[in-house]
Please model this.
Amino acid sequence: MTLSCGLLQFVDRDAQEHEYEMTEYEGARARWCPGCGDHSVLTAVQRLLTVEQLIPEQTVFVSGIGCSSRFPHYLRTYGFHGIHGRALPVATGIKLHRPELNVFVVMGDGDCTSIGAAHWVHALRYNLDFTVLMLDNGIYGLTKNQTSPTTPMGFKSNTQPAGSWLPALNPLSVSLGVTNASFVAQTAEWAPAHLYATLRAAYRHKGMSFVRILQRCPVFTPTLFQKAVQDPVNIALLTHDDGISAPELDKVYKNRVQHDPHDLAAARHVAEQTDRIHLGLLFRDASRPRYEETRRVAPRTAEERIQLLNEEFDRYAV
Ligand SMILES: Cc1ncc(C[n+]2csc(CCOP(=O)(O)OP(=O)(O)O)c2C)c(N)n1
Ligand code: SF4
Ligand SMILES: [Mg+2]
Model:
């Protein structure tokens, strides 16, 4: 487990007056394979940090284990590259104790929908105010080609060489099925304008925003999104005044589906569609209760805490 803490590198400056440039958010050199979709997501995230002028010392990226989970190393913010499947409980602890921090979570499809599935469900319900990026390449990349829950049926891997036996799990349907989920969107790393617009909407949402990012892995799943990448006719953009718009893509993606992101039943219907890949905001409801608000405990001084503790002990004194 690595705790990558960049505090010692930060120079002392008045954060309010300093304007951050994109290069100031760059961490170590990214070591993903050439052509890996993770590079594109990193660039979009760095753009978001720059546009929003997030203070590096007040921003933390939490990840599990996987190729995508190397993310925190490549950013000059705080980072916690933790344990496989456990990014969400770590992020929950951080947000509960330091609600003022900007918390981002980066997970792979295996990290989130397999070993971390229970945390995923409960984090959606707890609805803490952080941004979750699930980079879905349909495979365990880091450990070199094992079937994940999102691997398409029939896809051959090292663990299922005759082809995946089961239909793939649908992360959008699962997320939308969890009580109190408040933001669910889908985007693709090969559509950078849409990716960036989605990240911005997700960051600005108050509550847990779950973004499934379709991500190419040219090494182990090179054909997974090939049709959608090569021919925009295989993509449909969800449009609505209150949705996610990326006008730069108007000429590229001509298929439009009008979808009201406040309509949960319609969102579930869109999530089930298999004719095309739908990109956009499926659901948003900023009024849903957030765990850090419902469980807020008023700050207390040390003396007050000792007094409360003594009162508790006295209650049980025999
Ligand atoms: C407890 C535990 N079990 C298994 C592993 C081995 N392991 C590391 S990453 C990984 C899967 C990564 O796949 P995914 O989350 O999809 O990320 P990707 O590499 O595709 O980005 C596995 C099984 C581990 N590190 N820890
Ligand atoms: S194995 Fe796949 S997911 Fe991992 S870095 Fe290489 S291209 Fe990216
Ligand atoms: Mg994966």
